[in-house]
Every structure is written in C-alpha cells, then in structure tokens.
Amino acid sequence: MHTEKVNIKSYSREDLQHVVAELGEPGYRANQIHRWLFNEQVKNFESMTNLGAKLRNKLSNRYDVPSCSIVKKQLDPEKKNGMGTSKFLVKLHDEQTVETVLIPAEERNTVCVSSQVGCPLRCTFCATGYMGFTRNLNAAEMAEQVYLVDNLLTANPISGHVTNVVFMGMGEPLLNTSNVIEAIETLSDQDYSFSLSQRKITISTVGLIPQIHAIARSGIKAKLAVSLHAANQQKRASLMPVAKEHALDDLHNALERYADLTGKPVTLVYMLLEGINDTIEDAKSLVAFCSGFLCKINLIDYNSIVNMEFKPVEAEWRDRFIRILVGAGLNVTVRKSYGTSINAACGQLALKEKTLPADRLIK
C-alpha cells in the first residue's frame, strides 16, 4: 500500500528527536538532520553524507525535503543609491504562495516575513485580511523566506547580507506563535552560517494578550511591536475587530507586564488615518495609554490600497500630532513607507488572485 511521504521540514528540532528515536537512531542524529536542512539547505537525504546509507534510505522512504522558491520578483523603481525595495512571491512547500519583502537601507537589509497564508483578523485598513485565511506557515517556510533573500543578496557582493528580520508580512505571527519562535531560534543559531542576533528580529502583533504573555515568558530576545492604531477602545475595535476580544485596558496591562519581565521597550505602531484617529484627543489618548510601561511610538502613514476608503493625513496635521506626543516626553519615530509603488508597504500585501469583498469597496 502506498503511503504518502511527510514533509521532514514540518517538524521542529524537538520533533526530530522523536523521528530519529522511532527509526532506532541515537538522539544526536536529529541535530545532524536539522543542520543539513537549515545550515546546508540541502534538498535531499542523499546529500546528508554523515548519515549512514541505511538511515538515509529510511528517511527517504518516509519523508520529503521540499523547499520554498521565489516565483516572481517586483522591484520598486524609487531606488536610492542603486538599491530599492523588492517584493517576492514565494512558493511554499505545498504550492501555496506568500509575499516577502526586502527593505534595503544604509548598512541594513531588512526582510519582512509572512507567517500565514492570508489572515483571519480582517483589520479594515489591511489588504491581507480580505484574502481570507488558508493556513499557518511552518517554521521552515518562515526561515526559508529569509534564506532566499539572503542568497540573492550574497550573489551580489555590493548588496551584503540580511541584517534584520521583521515578522510583519502576511498574517498575524502570534496566531502561529510556536512556529514563529522555532523559526527565530533557527535563524539565530550561532552554530549555523546564517545567524542573526535575536535582538535584530521583531515580532509584530495586533495585540493578542495570552500570546504576548507567552512571548514574554519564552526567553527569546526578539523585539515586540504592537499595531495599536487607536488608543480609544471604540475606535480601535472599529478598525480592528480583534480589539473587541482584546480590549485596550487588558492590552495595556499585558504590555506593562511584558516590559517589566523582559526589560525591553514595546514599539507601538500607529497608522494615521485622516479623520479617524488623527485628532488632538486621539493624540492625548495615545499619551495616556503609554503611561506605566517602557515604549516608543512608530508613526506610519496609511498606504493607499485600491478600493479601500481610507486616506493618509496631511503633513501639517501629522506634525501637530507628533508635537503633542513629543511634548509629553514620548519617544516618537516617523517611519517612511517603502515599496508603496509595488504594493509592498505595510497593509498592502495581498495575492492578486484574492480580491477585496464588495462590502469594502468605495461606494
């Protein structure tokens, strides 16, 4: 009877211990296999030359070694110093696809990683949510997005390497927490040729409170960014349906505990939307929310999405908003959006074959 092979990369490093045990092999074989898969990035078991032929045959009879690949690339024409933001359509292990973004800057190459195919949360200003949700990525698929971009960069000596990773692409990372942590641990493995400091990695979330507690207790050193977008419960819930379940007061308490436990500031991401969350009262509400824990504010402009009804604020209005925050002693950064011309900026990632529903079109 034919038995379908299992994706060996769907297993965590701990799971690989059980795999080799079931095959009657010593535990150290799990680390050897993991190293071949992620350090050497091999595509078959025959390449795992420090495993005996008998073990390689057992593995190849039971498991596959799929790999992600780039099937399409878009380059932002707005380049600086010969570099520009790039968006990649990445084919996953099962032929599903996600988008991955490279954001080059001075002495920095940041990869924006997707953690889900689509997203179930349906934030009103984000194109990804209107794709619907298909599945979580496994840890390997997230790590491989970084490897693919790094391999492209290293092929050009001028481009350098990936220096930073942000889990801010398609999907909500904390709905896939265990795989995200596994991917971070692989990407930061100091014994591997590709190894980032966990402090160069950021996890972005809409504010899922139990998962924030879990991240705080996990011991990983990655940074936390929370998409806030309003410091008024009613406004936030209208923009982000998930806020009805994860209320602002509870979120504040969770972030206070996170900052106390980890000693790290939380980045609060706030997208300014004209006539919605950009008033003086909105700024004062944000100041009040920030009291009691270590944080910094990352203000971003709304990135226009076809058929969605929001608008970015005028520069003068944004500057007034900033003055209120700075006047209250807050650390404020205005983040420039990269890749808007190729729909690669925050909120714009969505596969073309997925269209926005009629109830979100401009009337």
Topology of this protein?
Elements: E1 6-7, H1 13-22, H2 28-38, H3 53-62, E2 63-64, E3 69-75, E4 86-91, E5 97-105, E6 108-112, E7 116-118, E8 133-136, H4 139-154, E9 164-167, H5 177-187, E10 201-205, H6 209-218, E11 223-227, H7 233-239, H8 248-262, E12 266-272, H9 280-289, E13 295-301, H10 315-327, E14 332-335
Parallel strand pairs: 1-2, 6-9, 9-10, 10-11, 11-12, 12-13, 13-14
Antiparallel strand pairs: 3-4, 4-5, 5-6, 7-8
Helix pairs in contact: 1-2, 4-5, 6-8, 9-10
In short:
With 363 residues, this protein is an alpha/beta fold. The protein is 31% helix and 19% strand. It has helices at 13-22, 28-38, 53-62, 139-154, 177-187, 209-218, 233-239, 248-262, 280-289, 315-327, and strands spanning 6-7, 63-64, 69-75, 86-91, 97-105, 108-112, 116-118, 133-136, 164-167, 201-205, 223-227, 266-272, 295-301, 332-335.
